[in-house]
Amino acid sequence: MAPLPPSTAPRPAPRSWWRRNQIAITPWLFLAPGILFFAIYVLIPVGQSFNISLYDWDGLGAAEYVGLRNYEEMYWDDAFYTSLRNNVIWLVLYLLAIPAGLAIALFLNQTVTGIRIYKSLFFFPFVISQVVVGLVFSWFYDPSFGLLNVMLGWVGLGPVNVLGDEDWVTYGIIAAGLWPQTAYCMILYLTGLNAVDPEQIEAGRLDNAKGLRMLWHIILPQLRPATFIAFVVTIIGALRSFDLISIMTQGGPFGESRVLSFYMFEVALSEYGFRMGYGAAIAVVLFLIMLCFITYFLWSMYREEKGR
């Protein structure tokens, strides 16, 4: 049978639009539900906060547009600067959870008798709620029967009212927050240590790398993803610290333990008169501070990955 001339040969049926773009579109279909929920519950509320911060509104009546007046009032508000200062203290000291979590993870990663008991003890603070942590440390700091003052009495020191002292209250609450946060960082590093390449460790031992040299040059570079997550989560936790302050001091004494998130709650939903606009302005400032830190870490990670 003679072949058909080229002009009369049957042409393949054209592929549908879906078949032509299936590989490119499929990932976006899987991401679509997450993107939708993120937009509804995160992006839209952030935009609403920016908008509300431009109004004087009690949450129920008519809102009056005041422009940047809430931000101008914030500039002259001493309570705002007290809260901002405490947030900076939280941010600096809360980062101690990262090296502490790493040290505990390195210890728990060894083959030691009774290691399962040790892991359970160090993991325990992570599974209890912040409310329980706040109550436990409130009892611990109690000037009349707290364990802290009992131990101070053993060495002849007088009782110390940590939560009632303006100079010590913030540090006492941070110490309570470090307990579960260190456990969280420990879990991140334990997961990262399970992914460390044993061949690199063996190669390091052949090059006589031991102790801190092994940790700094071989183990820590492989723990960068865990360190990044630990930094991001710890910074966010320090900036949005609310529950421990609410349980342990309610912002006292004399407002000295306030942070921005708690002050935002006070002015928007507490006895300050339901000033939703001013509370939203504080929330905007807090969001911008978080955004700066997270953007910096994301950019650092992107630059590092791109340089490889």
UniProtKB/TrEMBL annotation:
Pfam families: BPD_transp_1. SUPFAM superfamilies: MetI-like. It comes from the Bacteria. The chain crosses the membrane at residues 25-44, 88-109, 121-141, 168-193, 214-239, 278-299. CDD domains: TM_PBP2. The keyword Ubl conjugation does not apply. Keywords: Cell membrane, Membrane, Transmembrane, Transmembrane helix, Transport. Its main location: membrane. Residues 83-299 form the ABC transmembrane type-1 domain. Belongs to the binding-protein-dependent transport system permease family. This is Carbohydrate ABC transporter membrane protein 1, CUT1 family.
